[in-house]
Amino acid sequence: MKYVLDAGAIFSRIDIDAAHTTAAVCAEVRDRESSQHLERLLASRKLVVREPTPGAVSLVRRTMGRTGDGLSETDIGVIALAHDLSGHIVTDDYGVQNVSSLLGIPWSPTKTAGIRQTLSWCLRCTGCRKRFPPDWSEGVCDVCGSRLARSKR
């Protein structure tokens, strides 16, 4: 099985025989102990840095748009790489787990129980409770002007 690690898996200092990650994940690892762990994995060739294909990145973005999960570019790259490799993601990030589940990508948590079900998100006005799509860019309600907050659909 091809494992793909996100930064949380590296911060957890898991020991794995063979895995992949992206350059963006490596760039997120800054604390001394995690950096040393990352360097050991890279030096021993237990961890290989690869980048996802543009097609896989587009697929993840489309799926993310359906769920309303706000993922970072790094998270998108990790999921896309797992898709490219038909891999298994090691992550404690609930958003990564959610989108991965919808794409049929298996995942394992390191320190949390993980999600129990997939969720879709929308934005809801904190004043009048009107619902908005997750990509609504205004940030405020077009009816009452109150701020919007993320809410389960």
Feature tags:
elongated, single chain, alpha/beta, about 150 residues, about 40% helix, five-stranded parallel β-sheet, about 15% strand, three-stranded antiparallel β-sheet, Rossmann fold
Summarize the helices and strands and which ones pair or pack.
Layout (H helix, E strand, L loop, with lengths): L2 E3 L1 H5 L7 E3 L1 H6 L3 H12 L3 E3 L4 H14 L5 H13 L2 E3 L3 H9 L4 E2 L12 E5 L5 E2 L15 E5 L1
Parallel strand pairs: 1-2, 1-4, 2-3, 4-5
Antiparallel strand pairs: 6-7, 6-8
Task: Explain what this protein looks like in three dimensions.
- By secondary structure, this protein is α/β, with parallel strands linked by helices.
- The protein folds into 2 domains: 3-108, 3-Layer(aba) Sandwich (Rossmann fold); 121-152, no CATH class.
- Helices cover 39% and strands 17% of the residues.
- It is built from 6 helices and 8 strands, in the order βαβααβααβαββββ.
- It has helices at 7-11, 23-28, 32-43, 54-67, 73-85, 94-102, and strands at 3-5, 19-21, 47-49, 88-90, 107-108, 121-125, 131-132, 148-152.
- A 5-stranded parallel beta sheet has the order 3-2-1-4-5.
- Helix 6 links the parallel strand 4 and strand 5 (107-108).
- Helix 4 (54-67) crosses helix 5 (73-85) and helix 4 (54-67) crosses helix 6 (94-102).
- The longest helix is centred in the middle third of the chain and has 14 residues, at 54-67.
- The mean pLDDT is 90.
